[in-house]
Structure formats: structure tokens, C-alpha cells
């Protein structure tokens, strides 16, 4: 029996913000018999205004205080890059590959952004400080230990998202601190509109997101995975977190009759093949309905697993809803 690991290196990011969804009806009385004149109901979403600030208590209750709006921001993980892109800001330096995606800066522009050496787990403090940042944004459980070394030189903001609502909250807080309030509201509205539209027409198919680099895969669950938190209202998604010691087996996945499978191949160093190709060596893999029917989708892990912001999640919604039809 093949089981997922009890602990797998994957972290997730943003505070719930009130947004009201108003659904208006499209024309229906005079629809053509052929259906050519049919039009879908429009979904209108309003968001709470964002007020510019140089200090605030973030979505996790942490006090962030700056002397002025930050101009030089160093990103130590991809949610930061996602948020800044939504706000029209290019980070001074980064620690992820997300910016190279065509929906962000693209490969050519991304090459102009310096990369912090040391990798995701241990970015070099000296390199960070060499960019003279006003603000450094990192993942709390991974980069929180850097805060003492940055004290007095740059403000450090530790984010720790678990759901899409968290990510929206961090977007709003970043918009307030940078003074990009209109951009923040626009990005939030666009994402919430896309999500509301997807939730209006949920799929009856059973979906699953798995991730990993080899046969020891992980299952993304809504309670601890930002991307997976989108899925319960747009599809059947019967996967619950089992904590750090929990895991799902291929036998359990087979028993659930997964119709659509999304696979995030995580590379740690040189790429050595797709996760789906490695799992194909197990005889149980071919029996999963999604595999039998050719509905296995290898997705971009930079966006699906690491992005976690409203731009990345918008891409996820586009790709997921297309596959779930």
C-alpha cells in the first residue's frame, strides 16, 4: 500500500474580508428556442474600501509599523510576489520563480529582479540587507527566525495563510501599507467575482489535488491549503486534514472515485520527471477514474502550490473550472 508522507514540505498563506455578492438575473422571458439568445446571469461583487496606513495590525494580530510607505520590498516567498504584482509593484528582490510566469512579469522582465541566494528555507540575511529594503515579507513558520537579524534595518512582516480568505486579507493589508488602495480593491473584486461565478455553477465531479516529488505524495486539504480551500464550493472535494501525522493512500483515493485529478510536481533541485508519471508505476493508479478517462492535469506548481494570492488563485479557478466541466 502506497501512502503519502506524514510530513511534507509545503506551506500556505492571508484575513477574511467582508464582501457582499449580489446576483442579478439576465434576460430569460424571450429566450430563443435554439438557445442562441441565452445569456448568463451577471455576478456583481462589492468589496469594503481600503484605507491607506503606515501601521496596522495584520490578519494574524501582528502589529506592522512603518515610518513611510515602503518603496523597496524584498519577497521571501511567492505570496508576496503575487500581492505586489496585483498592486502594480515590482519587488526589489525575490526568493521565488513565480514572477517568470506569463501572467505575472514574464521571463524577460523577471530576470531583471534580483534573486536572494540561499534558497527558500535559508535565504541569506546579508543578501537581503544588501538591497536596503524598507520591508521584508516572509512566511512565518519558515522565515520568522530571520526577524531578529533584520531588526533595526528593515521591518519584517511574517505571513501565514491557510485559506483564500487569508490571502485576500494580506492583499488588503499590503494595499493599505503601500498606498495602492484602488489597486487592492480592484484585485480583490476581480478575484471575488470569478470565485462567485464558479460557485454559482459547481461541478458534480469529485476532484483532488495531490502534490509531491515522488511516490510519497501529499493530499491538499481545504483546512490547511489555500488552493484547496477554493474547491469544496466548486466541486465535490471529500478530503479533510488529518494533521501532521495523517496521510491518504492510493487505496482511499481509488475508493472515492476521483473524476478529475490535479497534480503538482514539486521540484527540489533538478527536475526529474512528473509526479503523475512516477505514480503510474503503481498498479492502483490506472484504476482511478480520472486516470482511466484521461482527466489527470499536471499543473504549474509555482501558481497552484506556491502563489496563493488572488492572481494565482484566479488562474487556478480558470483552469479548474475548465477541467471540471
From TrEMBL:
**Quick one: a GO cellular component term?**
outer membrane-bounded periplasmic space
Q: Name one Pfam family in it.
A: Peripla_BP_2
What PROSITE patterns does the entry give? FE_B12_PBP, PROKAR_LIPOPROTEIN
One GO-annotated biological process of the protein: iron coordination entity transport
Protein keywords: Signal, Transport
InterPro entries xrefs: ABC_transptr_periplasmic_BD, Bact_iron-sidero_bind
| All copies of domain Fe/B12 periplasmic-binding, residue ranges | 72-325
Major location category of this protein: other
Tell me which SUPFAM superfamilies the record gives.
Helical backbone' metal receptor (SSF53807)
Highest taxon, organism lineage: Bacteria
Localization, UniProt? Cell envelope
Indicate the family of this protein.
Belongs to the bacterial solute-binding protein 8 family.
Query: By what name is this protein known?
Result: ABC transporter substrate-binding protein
Q: Which organism is it from?
A: Streptomyces lavendofoliae
Amino acid at each position: 500500500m502506497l501512502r503519502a508522507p506524514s510530513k511534507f514540505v509545503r506551506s500556505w498563506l492571508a484575513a477574511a474580508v467582508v464582501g457582499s455578492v449580489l446576483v442579478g438575473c439576465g434576460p430569460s422571458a424571450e429566450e430563443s428556442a435554439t438557445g442562441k439568445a441565452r445569456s448568463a446571469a451577471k455576478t456583481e461583487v462589492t468589496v469594503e474600501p481600503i484605507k491607506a496606513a503606515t501601521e496596522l495590525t495584520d490578519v494574524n494580530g501582528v502589529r506592522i509599523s512603518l515610518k513611510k510607505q515602503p518603496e523597496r520590498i524584498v519577497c521571501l516567498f511567492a505570496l508576496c510576489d503575487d500581492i505586489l504584482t496585483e498592486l502594480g509593484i515590482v519587488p526589489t528582490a525575490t526568493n521565488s520563480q513565480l514572477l517568470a510566469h506569463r501572467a505575472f512579469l514574464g521571463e524577460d522582465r523577471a530576470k531583471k529582479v534580483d534573486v536572494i541566494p540561499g534558497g527558500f528555507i535559508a535565504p541569506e540575511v546579508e543578501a537581503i540587507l544588501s538591497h536596503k529594503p524598507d520591508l521584508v515579507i516572509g512566511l512565518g513558520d519558515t522565515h520568522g527566525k530571520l526577524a531578529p537579524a533584520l531588526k533595526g534595518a528593515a521591518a519584517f512582516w511574517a505571513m501565514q495563510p491557510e485559506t483564500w480568505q487569508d490571502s485576500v486579507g494580506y492583499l488588503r493589508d499590503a494595499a493599505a501599507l503601500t498606498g495602492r488602495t484602488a489597486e487592492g480593491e480592484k484585485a480583490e473584486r476581480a478575484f471575488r467575482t470569478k470565485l462567485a461565478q464558479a460557485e454559482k455553477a459547481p461541478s458534480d465531479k469529485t476532484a483532488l489535488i495531490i502534490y509531491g516529488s515522488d511516490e510519497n505524495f501529499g493530499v491538499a486539504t481545504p483546512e490547511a491549503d489555500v488552493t484547496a480551500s477554493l474547491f469544496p464550493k466548486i466541486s465535490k472535494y471529500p478530503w479533510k486534514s488529518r494533521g501532521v501525522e495523517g496521510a491518504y493512500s492510493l487505496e482511499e483515493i481509488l475508493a472515492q472515485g476521483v473524476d478529475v485529478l490535479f497534480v503538482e510536481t514539486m521540484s527540489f533541485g533538478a527536475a526529474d520527471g512528473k509526479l503523475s508519471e512516477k505514480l503510474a508505476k503503481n498498479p492502483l493508479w490506472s484504476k482511478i477514474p480520472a486516470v482511466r478517462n484521461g482527466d489527470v492535469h499536471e499543473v504549474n506548481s509555482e501558481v497552484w502550490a506556491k502563489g496563493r494570492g488572488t492572481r494565482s488563485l484566479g488562474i487556478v479557478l480558470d483552469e479548474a473550472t475548465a477541467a471540471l466541466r
